[in-house]
Amino acid sequence: MRFEQTFMNFILQHQEKHNRTYHFLILMDALISAAKHIQHYYLTGMLRGNLGLTGTVNVQGEHAMGIDHIAEEISLHYLRSSGRVIHAVSEESEEMILMDAEGGRYFVYFDPLDGSSNVSHGLPVGFLFGVAKRNLDGPEDGHLRPGKDYIAAGMFVIPTGTFTLALKESGTWRFHIDDTMNFVKPIGVILPEDSKTWEFSFNEANRCSFDQRVQTWIAEEERKYAFRYLGSLAGDFHRILSNGGIFMYPAIVSHPNPEKNRPHGKLRLMYEAAVVAFMCHEAGGDAVDEAGIPILEIQPKEHHQRTALYVGSKPLVDEIAQILRG
Ligand code: AHG
Ligand code: MN
Ligand code: MN
């Protein structure tokens, strides 16, 4: 029989090697449990035709809870019971969520179900999270942290059973769920340097509404690469991490219907853009916003703040960043 190293064993070794406490292990156990639970719900809900879109009413006349709210409830349950989280910020809740954990030491920023347009097809969605740690020695600090302060960030691609985790200054790894429902077989992820596998990923329908400089750059570059877009950040970014290239969600500045402009981009900084930027950085890549500023440097002013995002292989991100800064 052949056995692979489990995620929990991997993380335990990591903590011991770096002389760290077990608190992070307990937090990771909560996140893993939440992701497995959401994946189970996603798969079985799909089979029962029970993925309830928000605002729908079921046959009993009750309001069905959307899968994104269910995913949030599941996540909050596990995060709360970990007893390690001070505040959580979720895409699904307007306000920051106080966890009341005495001795809590982490801030968790998460999107329990990202890529909602894929839900009714049962296609990949993401559970994205970033973790920052409270300043345990000095004065109490707030939860509005730039990505460079995160100690870890990760994503589950649901329901494919893949999990990617980046640990600060320690790299990015990918795990797969096996038949025993354990995440196993850590594989270090480094963005490939050879551009022959690189891909471009963005919503082509928005292209004519991007800044002119971005449109020109895309026109110059695109023929060199394959184009892939699923409309689910976790799935699309998963490909970029493996194959290299760039994922973009630029600002939308010249839409024929001005109401559809998104001058600050679409994606949320704290639990979408900074999460993938952190994983990409640890895998040797980079990420910038519409002004060419590194995503990990942006100090959030509020927790649902949006940003444009260019993330992927360093040479490509550097190129577009230079154009955007100019
Ligand atoms: P949401 O948070 O509403 O589920 O949005 C999904 C995100 C992200 O997963 C994806 O990269 C992007 O929005 C897709 O947006 P478009 O449909 O505009 O391309
Ligand atoms: Mn989202
Ligand atoms: Mn969401």
Structure description:
There is one protein chain. With about 325 residues, this protein is an alpha+beta fold. The protein folds into two domains: about 5-190, 2-Layer Sandwich (Fructose-1,6-Bisphosphatase, Chain A, domain 1); about 195-325, D-Maltodextrin-Binding Protein, domain 2 (3-Layer(aba) Sandwich), CATH 3.40.190. The chain is about 30% helix and about 25% strand. It has seven helices and 15 strands. The strands form three sheets. The chain has an eight-stranded mixed beta sheet, with helices on both faces. It has a five-stranded mixed beta sheet with strand order 10-9-11-15-13, with helices on both faces. A two-stranded antiparallel sheet has the order 12-14. Strand 5 and strand 6 (about 160-165) form a beta hairpin. Helix 1 (about 5-15) packs antiparallel against helix 2 (about 25-45) and helix 2 (about 25-45) runs antiparallel to helix 3 (about 65-80). The mean pLDDT is about 90. It binds 2,5-anhydro-1,6-di-O-phosphono-D-glucitol and manganese (II) ion (MN) (2 copies). 2,5-anhydro-1,6-di-O-phosphono-D-glucitol (AHG) binds next to helix 5.
